[in-house]
Amino acid sequence: MDLDIEDIQDRLVPVGTLGAPREDEEAEERFPPIPNPPDCPPADTVDDLQKSLQDFARANGFAIIRRNASNYRNGKPTYYNIIDDWKWSFTLKNGDHNHGPSIDPSVHKLHRKMTEQQLTLLATVSKHKAIKSREAAAIVRDAVPGSLVKQKDIDNARQRLRLDALQGRTPVQAFFHILRDSGLRHRVLWSVDYPDRADAIVWTYPWCERMWKRFPEVLGLDNTYKTNRFKMPFFQVTGTTDISSLFNCAFGLVSNERREGYDFLLQSIESIRTEIGAAQPHLQLCIFHINANVKMNAKKKWKGPGGILDDELDVNRDKEAAEAAAIQDAIDNAGPVGRRELPATAVEHRPSGFYRLWQYVIYADAEEDFKAAWQRLQDEFKDQEAVLEYVIGTYMPYRHQWAHCYISQYTNFGVRTNSPTETAHKDIKSFVVNGNSDLFALANAVDQMLKNKQRTYTERIAEMETKTRRIYLGQDWLGTVSKEVGYHALGLLSKQRLIALTALPTAEKPNPPGLQPCQVRFTNQYRLPCSHRLLELFKAGKQLTKDFIHPRWWLRQPLNVADSLLGIKDPKIVTSLRGRPRNDRTSSGVDTPSSSAAPASSAGRQPRQASNPAPRPVRASIRRNRSAFEDDDREWPQEADEQVKRRREEEDGDNRVKRQRAPRKCSKCGSFEHNARTCSD
């Protein structure tokens, strides 16, 4: 059979094309079709137009990108049609897609774009470093329903905010810019080897200066660690206010903890103190850290059984939170001891016994007690030369700065430990969050901490003013002091008053026991009148005045300045009398007869009537004593008293109702003169 070659070629199908789908059919199988946006009505602005298109695209798995008209995509220009009514419209030119719809609209960056409201909220939230990106993303999403912001978007936005705040500088340069541009007092120690590097910095803030100048009597100094990525110890100077709260005086950073570094810190603090005109306080050491060091070295240097093992040494240098709690516990449990309280027998010859006697040394109530306890300690532990040499060489030359018998005479307002500064370390770390912050972030954390303390101080002052109005304004023994002195000082005075009242003679106790001899500790420490001084004022009938109180406790403005009605006192309390007030019989001149309601004697009592008598007629009472104004206005004649007496006798004889007792009646038989018990029936 002859076949034409051309006919065969027409019938043959190329290999690989038999049954193969077309390219458009394969694309439809791989990617579901994406619907194109419909023609929408003209919009007033291009942003409104894009928003309507973006809403449609978000629901259908794609995003709309607005490009410039001069750009080309796939060789085709993109452009907008502007119609003559100044409205924006959309015209579809090419509806082909080379991909399918996205699974979730969050994969498109345009759908995750934050609004102005969200950006403002994020800038506010980002000031607080304790709020992490995950929580910040949730806060931002909640602000706008349907938002698709991710944690990565928050990190990127925070980084942009940080770069904007740096203004093209490094974090260290931005930190020095804050010091100079804000006019903050600061001191810088530049490195000798590298003049463009700072070895130490000390700075303060206006609010710190005002509080420092107002409350300069008690200052605490201490270092903390793990606050910055340069590993520079963070130095804080703190003080206490009139409400026993904490404030910061100054801050510092030092590259080392050698003597030259501390010399610069202390010299800078003294220089700033002189500039602002704050008073210079006395020096005293923290007794908690002294006790901790003595206890540790007693174990470490102990010869014989009871010493500490090498693996038990605590090398952690950053334990402010634990120290603050331990300090407070030491304050609550510790108290002054006397020579009479020393153990009668020898203590245990171990580090615990050494530390027990050391407590009598540090908390001795008087100087002679201190010397006796110290001599006892040396006598019982004379074989422990290393421990005694440590105490003698380290602390005994400065005993006037830590022994209770000496520091109780200082104006320290009861502060014996460095607990406020330890609390300040905990506060700053709550704002820094981690130890890898740069100096710019550290400065911002300090600024936030100070704003929080300033706000808290104002709130507590207002709260205590309300308590003062409720508790102390009505107490006469305070006089005007209740409106001129703070709440905390009034509380201390009230405790001293209770002690003074135990020695104040009264009608019940004309000869009460006296107070203990005054050692002037309370007055020296708190600059307030003690119980002995208050007792003298009470006996002399004098009122307490503001002149007896240190200016630290004074209010900046008396309470009655803003409200003059607070100067009005309550009326004096009248002696409580039972019934109607009566004048004395001798002063009124009227002999008051006995009341008719008084019970009669059993012999003259008449039996009651069988039925209830009629109510007695109401008449005007003539059995009252004259009031005081009647005695003062006119003289009561003697004849009037006799007339009143005769009238009462006539009424008693004629008009008094005679009540007779009803006869007895038996309930069984109904007869009279006997009852059911004696009835014979």
TrEMBL record:
Biased amino acid composition, Acidic residues: 630-641
Chain segments carrying region Disordered: 14-39, 576-681
Record domain MULE transposase: where: 218-282
Biased composition (Basic residues): 658-667
Pfam families, alphabetized: MULE
Biased composition (Low complexity): 593-603
Biased composition (Basic and acidic residues): 642-657
Designated name of the protein: MULE transposase domain-containing protein
Naturally occurring in which organism (per UniProt): Verticillium dahliae (strain VdLs.17 / ATCC MYA-4575 / FGSC 10137)
Taxonomic path: Eukaryota, Fungi, Dikarya, Ascomycota, Pezizomycotina
